[in-house]
TrEMBL record:
Pfam families: PTS_IIB (PF02302). One of its GO terms (molecular function) is transferase activity. It comes from Serratia aquatilis. Its EC number is 2.7.1.-. Keywords: Kinase, Phosphoprotein, Phosphotransferase system, Sugar transport, Transferase, Transport. Residues 1-103 form the PTS EIIB type-3 domain. This is PTS sugar transporter subunit IIB. The modification Phosphocysteine is found at C8. It comes from the Bacteria. Gene3D superfamilies: 3.40.50.2300.
Amino acid sequence: MKKILLVCDLGMSTSLMVKKMQEAAKARGINAEICAKSIRDYKTAVAEFDVALLGPQIRYKLAECEKIANQHNKKIACIDMMAYGTMKGDKVLDQALALIEEA
C-alpha cells in the first residue's frame, strides 16, 4: 500500500485533491492511503507516510519540512501548482508515486 500525505495550512483545502487522487488510484487499481493534514500536524504525521506533498499555498515552508522529512528518510515536494489549481488528481498521484519510486 502506498501512503501519501498532503499538507496545507489547515488541512482543509487539500481535501478535494485527496478525493480526486483516491478516484485516480482506484481507477488504476493502486492500493493507496491518501490523506490531508495541517502543517501543524505534519511533524508527527510524516513518519507514518511514504511521501508528503505540500499544497502550493505553503511552498515557502518546503525547506523547513524537508529537514523533518529527512529525519524520517521520507521524500517531500510541493504539489505542481497547475495540477493543484485544476484539481488533476491523476497528475498529483503521478507526482507522489514518482517520489516514492525515487526512495
